[in-house]
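S1.2 Input.
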Amino acid sequence: MGEFWKRLFTRNVPTVRPGFSVGHVPLAVAVALTPDNPAPDSAEIEDRFYRLVLGMPESAVVEPLPSELAMLKRLHELCGADRFDIGSLPRLPAVLPQLLRLLKSDSADGTKLAQLIGRDPVLVGEVMRVTKSAHYRTLKPIVSLQHAVVLLGQEGLRQMVTQHVMKPILQAGAGMFGYAAGQRLWDHAERSAHASMFLARGQGDPFEAYLAGVVCNAGVGAMIRVLDREAPPTLGVFSRDFLASCAKIASHLTLRAAQHWELPSNVIQALRERMDVDDRPPVTALGKALVAGDQLAMIQLLAENHLVPHTTPAAHDRIDGLPQAQIDRAQQDLQRSFRVQNDYVD
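S1.3 Output.
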């Protein structure tokens, strides 16, 4: 962990619930979420989620302080346009773009997939490790990569690519900030992928929806590393607007990472629509599913960490354009798949 984060997070900061204060510095949020008042707005959800990822207490300060304005200028100098060195992000296997295209092709077969996977030792290792697990255990031992690939099947390979390739990348992206941030980013990625795929059902490629959900916060780890290196000691706990601006820059880095990794064009377009959601609503089916799934995943993770009631619905000001009944079904499915203990305390 860098010196800035050590200074900030080794202070004696007590756990804070909505409506409470520490000393003379109120840490209440703009809208208290209670079982009687469960509907937040989108900004509230995102603010709480990113504070959870950062391990940062809430703040009643909305507008950026002078030190934060200076920091924002520095962040734009480092990360704006094409200035951030996208090559510094953790690598994806070089064969991944070709593998994703082949997995979408009707002509994909075990031989072609095995030949492509065989060019990357990391993927070979993951395929063999997964297929030797109890879930795939067979009467006859797995003696070749092609045998393992056929055993996994296309759907199994897709899951393996996202879970066993993207997970360490997301966690490594927050490495300088400690394990907790990386684990929470991955927890969100799993839930976002699940919800996005549910919402995109019947509207497009379910794997593209799953992939978009997994990578939608890939730029947050890069943003954390920049803050760790550049943030001055005077920055302190972030104001709400400053944190929102950092999240916006992280979305830009996510889009650039997806382009650098040569992810499918539909995924890149959905990430672009998510980045621009403050200015215009998403227009593609995948963009709508991603925007809604991302937010539902944030709520789910906040509920699992007892920061909002488990009954908290989607934001009242969401602009994904999807029918409310579809959103409700997706949230119910998410809650069934990722259980929440109902012990939120206001």
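S1.4 Remarks. The chain has a mean pLDDT of 81.
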